[in-house]
Design goal:
Elements lengths: L2 E7 L16 E2 L2 E2 H9 L6 E6 L3 H11 L4 E4 L6 H6 L11 E6 L7 H10 L5 E7 L8 E5 L2 E6 L6 H4 L3 E10 H10 L14 H7 L4 E5 L11 H21 L3 E2 L12 E2 L4 E2 L4 E2 L4 E2 L4 E2 L4 E2 L3 E2 L4 E2 L3 E3 L3 E3 L4 E4 L1 E8 L4 E4 L2 E7 L4 E2 L4 E3 L9 E3 L4 E2 L4 E3 L2 E3 L4 E2 L4 E2 L8 E2 L11 H18 L1
Parallel strand pairs: 1-4, 1-6, 4-5, 7-11, 12-14, 13-16, 14-17, 15-18, 16-19, 17-20, 18-21, 19-22, 20-23, 21-24, 22-24, 23-25, 24-26, 25-27, 26-29, 27-30, 28-31, 29-32, 30-33, 31-34, 33-35
Antiparallel strand pairs: 2-3, 6-10, 7-10, 8-9
The chain binds uridine-diphosphate-N-acetylglucosamine and magnesium ion (MG).
Length: 449
């Protein structure tokens, strides 16, 4: 059966108290819309329609960034979830397959659950995803009769008795396109909110003698994000799942609760991640790497056997070869560090290429920015950069060369050469003691007078 996915993302998200539309708020560095679209992708939908409204252009451009083929349907006025789904009618005209409706603000439905919903459609006309809520709060309540779902009552329309129900609506619904669109036509807005509720489909389907089926999933999957507090809870839930997943894939986390992943973090087996490590977007860590405590890593690629940290910062474009060693208070940005190179202490390496087995001493800086443009530093194989060398880019330091500690290197260094670029030292014999005596006498005079 071919499937179309309709993702509702037109709402303003008033309870977020934000200038940003709700669908563009992020969990683990991906927008809620991206999470929803990634979840739906498991079905390999024939068509995906994203319904946008509030700040629609921004939401549409995010949808197209994720998948260029997505169709955008505009809902000019947000008259309710049923009205939102009806916006997909035109783009899906002639489509006879199944529609899966997802809400952008409920983006963590697991792939397994989405597959269960698809399979449930083979035995029932309309499928709804529900969950047992610890605190049902403002969720819609599911009214069942035996195994049949009879209707959904929105929180604002519940009676006291219905409010006590803990079986709640996730918002996810699936049915054939012709059925869903014909049910939506029946829906009116005579309710407490004056909105066209998608949830009314269930009662109409029952009236028409259609079968309804309830799929139940874990509450964690259906967390609806309506406020900043919900967003924080979603982040926590996401991180718990990510930690679990990485450990199942063979990564050791020494204190899992202190490690934060991005939605796209990739880590190879037998890697070790110590306490308090944060992964930003696009981090790839190969097998058997060791990330020590308090590192911040984003947009970086760490190869097998590398040891990073503690307290290292890898920024976008950091490409680290095998067995590279990066120590404390080192920042690397847009730089390729070849196999076995070492940058162990207090250095900044940006816009650079560092050759294999090069050794960069403490406190070295590639001075890459002249205030207007960025320039490149090239460091050859097995070069030895003395502590506190400033490499003023553009500059090329040859292989097997050395720079003396404290050098400010402004000219290229040939292969095998030693660059000495600091003021020569002069020793004044006995001068230190003389100077101290003079200063002490001056102080005495001042204290007396
Ligand atoms: C909805 C459900 C409720 C369910 C809850 C789960 C309805 C009527 N109620 O309530 O039963 O328990 O989700 O989280 O469906 N949207 C539009 N256009 C509109 C209105 C909403 O695109 O005109 C989008 C919103 O952007 C959002 C989603 O639909 O992504 C749900 O809307 P929201 O207002 O958050 O509904 P809830 O009150 O949470
Ligand atoms: Mg909601």
């Amino acid at each position: 059966m071919s499937i179309a996915v309709v993702i509702l993302a037109a709402g303003k998200g008033t309870r977020m108290v934000s200038d940003l539309p709700k669908a563009l708020h992020k969990v683990a560095h991906a927008t809620l819309l991206e999470h929803a679209m990634r979840a739906a992708a498991i079905l390999e939908p024939e068509t995906t329609v994203v319904v946008v409204g509030h700040e629609g252009e921004k939401v549409a451009s995010e949808a197209h960034r994720i998948n260029q083929e997505v169709i955008i349907a505009e809902q000019k006025e947000q008259l309710g979830t049923a009205h939102a789904v009806s916006m997909a009618k035109d783009p899906l005209s002639g489509f006879k397959g199944d529609i899966l409706v997802l809400y952008a603000d409920t983006p963590f439905i697991s792939k397994a659950t989405i597959e269960t919903i698809r399979d449930a459609r083979t035995i029932s006309d309309l499928v709804v995803l529900g969950f047992e809520a610890k605190d049902p709060a403002r969720y819609g309540r599911l009214i069942t009769h035996g195994t049949q779902l009879e209707r959904i009552v929105e929180f604002k329309d519940t009676s006291e008795k219905e409010r006590a129900i803990t079986l709640c609506n996730s918002g996810v619904m699936a049915g054939s396109a012709p059925l869903l669109f014909s049910l939506i036509e029946e829906i009116d807005n005579t309710n407490a909110s004056g909105e066209y509720y998608l949830t009314d489909c269930v009662a109409y389907a029952r009236e028409m003698g259609k079968t309804t089926h309830l799929v139940i999933c874990d509450e964690k999957e259906t967390l609806g994000i309506n406020s900043r507090a919900d967003l924080a809870m979603a982040e926590t839930a996401f991180q718990e799942r990510a930690r679990q997943m990485h450990m199942e894939n063979g990564v050791s986390l020494l204190a899992p609760e202190t490690v934060y992943f991005s939605f796209d973090t990739v880590i190879g087996r037998d890697s070790i991640v110590e306490q308090h490590v944060i992964f930003g977007p696009e981090a790839i860590i190969e097998s058997a790497a060791h990330i020590k405590a308090f590192c911040h890593i984003e947009g970086a690629h760490v190869s097998e056997g590398a040891i990073i940290g503690p307290f290292a910062r890898l920024r976008p474009g950091a490409e680290l070869g095998e067995k590279v060693r990066v120590g404390n208070f080192v920042e690397i940005k847009n730089a390729v560090i070849a196999d076995g190179a070492k940058i162990n202490h207090l250095s900044y390496i940006g816009d650079a290429e560092v050759g294999a087995r090069a050794n960069i001493g403490a406190g070295c800086v590639t001075c890459n920015y002249d205030g207007v443009m960025k320039h490149k530093t090239m460091i050859g194989e097995a070069a030895f950069i003395g502590s506190n060398t400033m490499m003023v880019a553009p500059v090329n330091i040859g292989k097997d060369s050395m720079t003396a500690s404290g050098s400010v290197v402004t000219k290229n260094v040939p292969e095998g050469a030693l660059a000495l670029a600091r003021a020569p030292q002069e020793n004044k014999i006995g001068m230190a003691r003389k100077l101290i005596d003079i200063l002490k006498k001056r102080k005495q005079k001042k204290d007396l007078g």
